[in-house]
Model the fold of this input.
Amino acid sequence: MMQHYMETKKEYPDCILFYRLGDFYEMFFDDALTVSKELEITLTGKDCGLAERAPMCGVPYHALDAYLYRLVQKGYKVAIAEQVEDPKLAKGLVKREVIRVVTPGTITSVQALDETKNNYLMGIVYEVGQRTNQTGKGRDGIYGIATADITTGDFMVTEVDSDRELFDEINKFSPSEIICNNAFYMSGVDIDGLKNRYNVIISALDSHFFGEESCRKVLREHFRVGSLSGLGLTDYGTGIISAGAVMQYMYETQKSTLEHITTITPYSTGQFMVIDTSTRRNLELVETMREKQKRGTLLWVLDKTKTAMGARLLRTYIEQPLIHKEEIVKRQTAVEELNMNYISREEICEYLNPIYDLERLIGRISYKTANPRDLIAFKNSLEMLPHIKQILGEFSGELLRGLAQEMDPLQDIYGLIDQAILEDPPVTVREGGIIKDGYHEEADRLRQAKTEGKDWLAELEAREKEKTGIKTLKIKFNKVFGYYFEVTNSFKDQVPDYFVRKQTLTNAERFTTDELKHLEDIIMGAEEKLVSLEYDLFCQVRDSIAAQVVRIQKTAKAIAGVDVFCSLSVVATRRNYVKPMMNEKGVIQIKNGRHPVVEQMMRDDLFVANDTFLDNGKNRLSVITGPNMAGKSTYMRQVALIVLMAQLGSFVPAQEADIGICDRIFTRVGASDDLASGQSTFMVEMTEVANILRNATRNSLLVLDEIGRGTSTFDGLSIAWAVIEHISSTKLLGAKTLFATHYHELTELEGTIAGVKNYCIAVKEQGDDIVFLRKIVRGGADKSYGIQVAKLAGVPDSVIARAKEIAEELSDADITARAKEIAEISSNITQHKAVPKPDEVDMQQLTFFDTVKDDDIVRELDGLELSTMTPIDALNTLYRLQTKLKNRWKETQ
Ligand code: ADP
Ligand code: MG
Done:
């Protein structure tokens, strides 16, 4: 056995091998050490033919899922070696084989999965300079990205040609496992960074996974098509390789036919609004920035779905807003229709409520891991379909009607389960109690034999007693002889010919007859046969459902859609949202808009609604000033969220809205607001500003929150200023922008730069205090009220008083005056010559180090040999250097 173990282990070197021995899965050697440590289970030993006993630990077979889940969560891969023949029948060593490899991206156990989230496996293939895609891009390299959820059968593929787009896709799907080719692993991408940021395991697979021919072949064979153009994959060279690799990896780990993966969907990233990684985080679309939880996110507000499928689909809607007007309007119409037919909507919700996760159920059915109780859950779900289909059929909008048509009531499958499977079956498949009476003749007979066997024996006993006249005739049973008639010696003469003698005792004799023998066979074998027959019948039912996977998946998708639109409609009604008009003129006009999340976190309608007007002309860029805590960030995010909600097809929190469709939304929050990410450096802030300036278009919406805050006032102000000039210049960018700043000097730009308008969030002064009004109004704030805010926050009175004194002396009138001058000069300049493009600008900068490197104190510090100095030496040197410095200061004063 140990030898076989070693051979098996050699085939799965990167996996922990769970080796089935009787009622346990055992691990040996290093695997045992790892597992005992990770799962805190006892380490023992086993003789293995070597001098030392092999370290060993084990988990009971019935708890497999729980242990698997914990190991996979920690990023391990586990290979499961099962006994593949019945130990009772085996001659010699029981045959064992690896039946499945479980990895984070391919785990299917229910408890390991969040049902409201897809669990994605992603394949990334990087190819350099080998092909160019349709648009002629990709000379520097193309990434093929294939993403699959093995539990639902979703499978998608795309191609991108930059790191950034790749990260956006990773971020959009947040896969739990990535497999990639060596070229990607070695391409200089920060693999460890990726691993940490997305909590994903990444492995480079052997090159045989990425052979072009084998990839094409596996896809053709799996999807049973003659050519890949039938799948719409013609234009995806690198994408095909990534999809083929994922397919092969799934085959190798699952060792099943994967019948439930029925389609592959190619998509282009240009079909959806581009939302980059930091924007997703900043807007808190599906998880909050700090706690990484759902409460407090847009998803949390919009999610009133009833089914797991709906919940997952809504999440993808939020992560991929649309950019084509007709598609958006179709969704809006669906929501509107449901709003207007509120009774029908409530009815649909009632019917949706009991529906289980059909997608994952059909996954388990195809995998043959679904148990009888799963089938009952399936049946109970199917029961709802005709009702939903019927109600939906009454709607006239294209989308809802389409969903009704897509929906197959699947009543044949309902009927099959209803006839075959008992209402309250066990979760086990090999202990009987699954199949209904009347479904199968033989099963009925066996079941009857089991329960009615006693009656039959009693009846036979009475009949033979009557026939033979043997008054003491009895049917008895023992283990050795089975059932027999016992005749006491006094009746020996009356025993008929057809009684066959089995045994003679001193005072009695034992017989059997053909009829008794037959009954015995029936009764004794019945139990065992019934259990195994029920298992076979159950498997047949399961397989015939599995054969209908395409119909079921289509219906499940339709149900998910209905669920999402009902959810959007429920939220729209309950929260008083309106249907936004959509335009392609680039105008964003919102009347009394609200922040969907903040308003809901607030009690008693305290949220103050605000208007917005942006266009591609005179109102391109709003500079928003106002003291800290006034509500600048909230307001800007509210606008971004309203635009995003509109484009995903939702109604929006406003009194009226007309939304110009945006191709991208970018948000950037000044460094100090973003401590949670652990990368709150000015450098990161600027990198992202650079990215925005490079990738935004005139149809993008930019939300820049206190840009430049991460550095000194002067640098910060100057950068903010230059960024505004760049963005608002229609020659360079001209994107619609909300720009919050605490540099009220920037309000000077209105009137000098075209398209810039000042807004501020009003506060009221009450003596020494301020009251936040939360209302956005035209004009700039001329004060920052920092001291008042500090006072509100409870900074001691003595500090506040002193701060006021200092402020009076330091009055920033000087800066403001100077800013005015520059604004005037630059407006003159821009009239004559265009602002240079950023890449033409010389990026040279003088650093602190450049200015001090010739200083003698610094030079001496630099030259110290710390390793050879005693502590006393070091202290003395420090003292000397410090004195030198102090003297120098004295001189300069
Ligand atoms: P700023 O960015 O100007 O410092 P924030 O946007 O962070 O201010 O807002 C500060 C707080 O004010 C928020 O936590 C929120 O509770 C409250 N707030 C913001 N906008 C509104 C509003 N329109 N109505 C009511 N409360 C608001
Ligand atoms: Mg703020």
